[in-house]
Amino acid sequence: MRAVTLQDYKRRILQVLAHIQNHLNDPLPLDELASLACFSRYHFHRIFKGMVGESVKEYVRRLRLERAASQLKMGSAPVIEIALDAGYESHEAFTRSFKRCFGAAPAHFRLIRRAQFAGVSSGVHYRPGKTVQHFRTLHRGGDMDVKIQQLKAMRVASDRTEKWAAPGTAC
User: Fold this and answer.
1) What's the first-to-final CA gap in the chain, in angstroms?
2) pTM, rounded to two decimals
3) Comparing C-alpha atoms, which of 120, 121, 62, 53 is closest to residue 86?
4) Which regions of the chain are under pLDDT 70?
5) CB atoms within 10 A of CB 102
6) Nearest Cα to 61, choosing from 13, 10, 100?
7) Are the C-beta atoms of 140 and 121 separated by less than 8 Å?
8) Alpha helix (H) residue ranges in 53-130
9) Could you write out the DSSP letters of every residue in 112-146?
10) What is the pLDDT of residue 165?
11) Which positions ≥6 away from 135 have C-beta within 8 Å?
12) N or C: which terminus of the chain has fewer CB atoms within 10 Å of its end residue's CB?
């Protein structure tokens, strides 16, 4: 893929990632997201999966589960309310998905008040009040252009974020 095309695709997908995060409570039809990225629905689905590392449905489900984990950790809302907010129609379905993703049932997760998200290929997680600024692009079999440079000493700042999840699990 040409560098210009890759940059354009990254920009379009980043716009979609930000839209999803800002509209996580809304239905997010594939046609609407594809239109936002100016792709056909079929091409969009292939490009999204190739660049983000998971399908749109998997990505949205994972972000909603991560938001639910944050709500369980920080809040006191009933589990069923959080489950419905995450788009699940039953407590049981939510509990199965949540346990598969985080290694503990929601109620137990809340009790221990600890969580670590599993490393996902895109590096994009649900963060309250923050929108996606970047994501890792996945390449299959492509060579990386690596350059080693010496830089002058400089001051830097970092944003320390929490790591959440049960080790070795994925949503």
Assistant:
1) 30
2) 0.66
3) 62
4) 113-146, 158-171
5) 25
6) 100
7) no
8) 56-74, 79-85, 91-102, 106-112
9) HT---PPP-TT-----TT------PPP-SSPPP--
10) 47
11) 13, 14, 17, 51, 52, 122, 123, 124
12) N
Of 62, 77, 64, residue with least CA distance to 110: 77
Burial 61-90 (b: 16+ CB within 10 A, else e): bbbbbbbbbbbbeeeeeebeebbebbbbee
Q: What is the pLDDT of residue 122?
A: 62
Q: Note whether 55 and 35 are within 8 A (CB).
A: no
What is the dihedral angle through the alpha carbons of 141, 119, 44, 133, rounded to the nearest 10 degrees?
Answer: -110
Q: Which is nearest to 37 in space by CA: 3, 9, 69?
A: 9
How many CB atoms sit inside 10 A of residue 120's CB? Answer: 19
Q: Which amino acid is at 59?
A: Y
Rounded distance, CA 88 to CA 86, Å?
Answer: 6
DSSP readout, 38-52? TS-HHHHHHHHHHHH
Residue 167 has a pLDDT of: 45
